[in-house]
Amino acid sequence: MGYVLQVLLLLSLITVASKGAGTLSTRFGQPAVFGEILAGLVLGPSLLNILGWKVFAQNARGGVPQADLAGVVQVLAEIGVVLLMFVAGMETDLQEMRRVGKAAFWAAFGGVVLPLVGGAGAARLFGYGWSEGLFMGAVLTATSVSISAQTLMELKSLRSREGSTILGAAVIDDVMGIIVLSVVVAYAGGGAVAQVPMAAGVAGQGTGGAAHEVAAGTGAAIAWITLRMTLFFALAWILGRLYLERISAAVSRLGVSEPLMALVVVVAFLYAFAAEYWGGVAAITGSYMAGVLFAQTSFKERIDRGIHPLTYSFFVPVFFINIGLRADVKQLHGRLSLTLLILAIAALGKVIGCGVCAWLAGFRYREALRVGVGMISRGEVGLIVAGYGLTHGIIGNDVFSVMVVMVLVTTMITPIWLRYVFPRVEEDRAAPVFESVAHLERRED
User: Fold this and answer.
1) Residue 100: which CATH number?
2) Among the four residues 57, 156, 179, 357, which has the most C-beta atoms within 10 Å?
3) Consecutive H or E run containing 427
4) What would the pLDDT profile of 201-249 be if each residue is shown by its tens digit?
5) 106 is a domain residue
6) Torsion over CA: 280, 281, 284, 285 (sign)
7) How far apart are CA 317 and CA 298, in angstroms?
8) What's this model's pTM, rounded to 2 decimal places?
């Protein structure tokens, strides 16, 4: 079978499996994303291993090896998460996000510190060195809220106070996580200059991050990283606010098919590229910002009608399935105790770290809990960071397998847990009304 036919067959199977599993998941009262990720796990090396089937076996034609099918799926998945976070940006309530800025900052801070300390402590408890321990902690600080964003959109809670805080905290977590990982890799490198690929953020999910040069023992590299990020956010925001409306109006008048949607895709991709290549933050952070900026234009409704079919018909299903395809739970090899401890730290570190800080910033208990739960998922962010550690000899295969399982489990439990804690949103908002009515009735009596 030719390579193109293999790709077409594989993508067809992935799309059908994703939509079918998502439908079953909703019928059992769970978000569709949970079923889609679970389908990826079933299709992956943990169970069916479809990429190993004979029909997808790599062959050669004229002595030239066929391209890697897994690589094709990975690229399409990364495009999917870029588009998904653009949609999340379009759905963001900017005024609400400004209002929860303080809570978002402290939630991100707590969600970085507690997992970092907990991960390093767990590694030391099992006999690993400080370099491995700090790197494991750094992996746990990452947040990829693309899963949370999708779940919140399904629950119609993305624009809620808690949803806005989760998205804002994820952006801040991106910046904090990059700095922490840079310092940790510099320490692990023993003074060498390290190239650190960092994927974190909002908006999350996403894809790979930029490479950062960090010289151990100096503050200049950290200052340079911070400057790059600051310049990117400032320039991207100013340029978008100044020119997107006018460019959109001009492009929409062109005599070609779907010129506005073409512009939207180009800007989303360019912002993602610039965020990672020049700004040093995750590409999905750039596409998220592009979505926020387009949402401020008069073309928002037209863009909404066009971007959703493009995103959810094909690219997003590939993204969710790909998470499971990259995981193999059979690689644990007797590391069950460490895995369970890391899982506990990964989940509770975000719930407690983000939740407590959000509570101290003025959120009620239930609201703070929702913020913490929404920050649990590591998604592909954790996989990329862990893969860097394995490639550069900071961690071994045993630790990498533990990190992969941690990423998979946190990604799968987040939509379930969100579904459990968010149904009471309307009850909470209605409570003051009921209390006021009861108070008036008592006064009349």
Assistant:
1) 1.20.1530.20
2) 357
3) helix 425-444
4) 333 443 334 334 443 445 676 777 778 888 999 999 999 999 999 999 9
5) yes
6) negative
7) 29
8) 0.72
